[in-house]
Amino acid sequence: MTEYFVAKDSIVRQIWGKSDTILFIFAGASAEFALNKAVDWLYFTGRLPADPIGRLFSTVSYAKAILFSEKQAALRAIDSMTAIHSGIEAKRGVAIPDWAYRDVLFMLIDYSIRSFEVLERKLSIQEKTEVFQVFNRLGVRMKLTGLPNTFEAWTRMRNEHLRENLQVSKYTNDLFNQYKKHLGAFRYKILLEAQKLVLPQRVKKLMGFRNTSLFFLIVKLYKASRMVNMDRVLKSFILPDRHKKQIKGLDQ
Question: What's this model's pTM, rounded to 2 decimal places?
Fold first, then answer.
């Protein structure tokens, strides 16, 4: 019997099995990435500012591939990802801080939960714990230090990271300018409104975002559109042409 890294009936597969949810995860992460105090690491190779949308898509696509893979294949993919980061550290001559690795892992946990709850329904504590446990296993395999042992401990650490590891910097402004450049003014506005629906209060405050989003009613209409199979038409309208094939491939 084939063993998978994530069980087929896991809530994590429900969350990451739809491009809708993944796009909101992407929206949240794109804002928080720009505020992270270690964002300079993402500028080291020059790839992020050159293609921020593509790089963020590759990040979520890589995570998705791991979550839906057979266990040994997933472990090999995680090891490969660890080796890539080690190579970047060697080129720069300094190690990426452990807290920076944890921040990325914590983002995937938090925005998985927040995005699903915006688009689908509230998750139970048991389901949230399962999301935490899956990504925590990924972190353990990457040999990350200081990981929490429980969902409750993760919640405390997540809030601590949000307080201590975020700041507005020249990279913040540059990244958002690049988002606008690569998306265009209309789609950039959509990104901002989507971010407001999923971002933690701390991130919204740093970005100067209001608490309400114009997307609130649009999301309700979007949910209704799925009942009549209009969601793909809407997605094709709001997403850049060069990423449509990637986005379609995110549905599982």
Answer: 0.88
